[in-house]
Known about the structure:
By secondary structure, the protein is mainly alpha-helical. Helix content is 57%, strand content 0%. It has six helices and no strands. The longest helix is centred in the middle third of the chain and has 18 residues, at 72-89. 40% of the residues are buried. Residues 3-9, 24-28 and 108-112 have low confidence and may be disordered. This is Non-specific lipid-transfer protein.
Amino acid sequence: MKHPKVATNQPTAAVVLLLMLLLAPGSEATIACSDVVKYLRPCVSYLEKGTGKPPAACCSGVSGLSSAASTSADKKAACECIKTAAQKINPNAQAAQALPSDCGISLPFTVSPNVDCSKIG
């Protein structure tokens, strides 16, 4: 019996990068992982295929998550949630890295597979 393919660290990090694009400095509160998933669900197909442009619903979700994850605690929680979710979907690293610019969002950090969620703030 075949076992499901487990994502490598690189794609997982790529999705974490996606999270970072959503986040900018804030203060205290915690966004629910279910909310993070809801915002990013429209991006899953794009991230798995790694081709074309993200759908409008994906970019809307990214923008919505960016607004919702306004505090430092929210950003860290969203980062951890995205890292966990990435292990289940095996995203394309290049697509995840391109998502911010493809959605017209600029990030104040470098997208990297070595993202440390504890340092997001």
